[in-house]
Write a structure and sequence with these properties.
By secondary structure, this protein is mostly helical. It is built from one helix and no strands.
Length: about 100
Amino acid sequence: MDNEQFQEFVVKHLMNLSTDVTTLKGDVSSLKGDVSSLKEDVSSLKSTVIRIETRMENEIIDKIKMLSEGNKLHDDRLNRHEKKINDLTKQVNLHDIKLSSR
């Protein structure tokens, strides 16, 4: 290979490299745009998740409190009923004893 052929070879490869670099720059630019778009999507998703978490916490905590209060009311009512039943049972037993002793 003489000097002229070598120069043509080098120039040809340099031109190919230049084209490749230009293509790579375009691809990198496109990737940057995609990454930027992904960042925006993630940011939007984070804010949506935070809103959903806050809503769930507020609604669920309120509902759990109401359920707890409702259960307490039912427990209190059940305890009152059990006490009344026990008192009535004692009275019936006393009446049975009085009736059988006559």
